[in-house]
Amino acid sequence: MALVDGADVSFGNFETTIIDRDRFVGTPQAESGGSWLFSDPDVAADLKHFGFDLLSHANNHAMDWGAEALLATAEHLRRAGLTVAGSGETLSAARQPRYCDSANGRIGLVCASSSFPRSARAADPVGRVPGRPGINPYRAMRMVVLSPENLAVLARIRNSQRRPEDRADYENGLSFLGNEYLPSDAVGDGVAFTFRTNEQDKQAILAALRQARQNSDFVVFSLHNHQPGFSNRQPPAFLTDISRQAVEAGADAVVVHGSHEVGPIEIHRGRPIFYSLGDFVFEGHMMSEFPADLYETFGLPLDTPPDAISRKHDETYFRNPDDYKSILALSRFGRDGVDEIDIHPIDLNVDGQATAKGLPRLAHGALAREILESLKALSEPFGTTVTVSGDTARISIR
To answer: For position 100, what pLDDT does the model report?
Structure first.
């Protein structure tokens, strides 16, 4: 697409792995990021040909096929001339800013993820204990908010399973069956969610951004996030918090991804925060090889024909038509931040056949208007004015 290739620098989230099936020696992990995604080595050159320069590899699918695939993926992408951040042989390597030189200066990239299998989190070596390959984490624990009355009911159930001396007070919250619960009168008989984030992770991310700011002319911060859920298109408080702090630490642009649907755009201190642009290429339906774990997930025998598994996989994970509506944001920056952002709606051809489905094309007419008007409504609470004109939109800052 000319819009990607024509930009000074283009960024995307690479949410899969690259496996050379003839040489790969790793194995699929017992716990995936939802499914076990992989692509062929030629994809790296395809992305470069498409016009991408910067890629995040910090997401819930980076470790689907283990540490071997995680490291091989980054190597394939770098050999193709792409700058990749967010994963590495150790936690320090995954947190490290990566840099890309362009005609207009050096770009620093810092990437992290708040949504990932626990086994995907990288670790540093300690003494004789080696480090662990993985991604740069921003841990966010979900807290379930209930009314005090409902929390009291849950506390009685919990305490019935404990010895009298182990029954704890619950007025300030409680832990039960692996979840954390908090009381609030505001939820009535319903339920709400909040998040407790890891302060050490946050400070390490902000330190990496300050380092990138010191060593480059322009800084991008990328965060992969699914919370509180795919059906909620407004970001949770912890996400707006880290995004704004990232700008204050030196990020010129913050790009959040993971929800598969378009989210709001905020301008903070003259810098854009994209809470979700949606997907740009969405071809999970093209998979034809799956580990035994997926057959078990679907309750199907291992001799099930691959085409039947592929259809089941597509119906289970790629059935939402809104996942095939997205936007491309072309931002123009001046010395004091972003001057304007042109928004181009993208149609991923949900009804396309085989190789056409999931590939991007510019949206037109009623579909373009639907995508842009949705973005406008989502962004209004953040004070962002999205002006729709025909099949495109613009955010003017100055």
So the answer is: 96
Alpha-carbon distance of 214 to 210, in angstroms, equals 6
pLDDT (tens digit, 9 = 90+) per residue, 34-46?
889 999 999 999 9
**Location of structure tokens 């990749």:** 84
What angle, 0 to 180 degrees and rounded to 10, lies between the N-to-C axes of helices 66-79 and 42-50? 40
For the cut 60, the answer to whether the pLDDT of residue 97 exceeds it is yes
| Cα distance between residue 270 and residue 187, in whole Å | 35
Beta strands in 24-120 (DSSP E): 54-56, 83-85, 87-88, 98-102, 105-113
166 pLDDT band, cuts 50/70/90, is low
- Cα–Cα distance between 141 and 164 in angstroms, integer? 29
Q: Tell me the β-bridge partners of 94.
A: none
Please report where in the chains the tokens 């790009």 appear, as a residue: 255
Q: What are phi and psi of 219, to 5 degrees?
A: -125, 135
Place of tokens 């810092």: 110
| Residues listed for the chain | 398
What is the identity of the amino acid at 349?
N
Range list of H helices, 237-320: 237-249, 292-298, 306-317
Residue 270, phi-psi category: left (phi > 0), alpha (psi -120 to 50), beta (remainder):
left
Residue with tokens 């407790």: 196
Per-residue pLDDT band for 165 (boundaries 50, 70, 90) equals: low
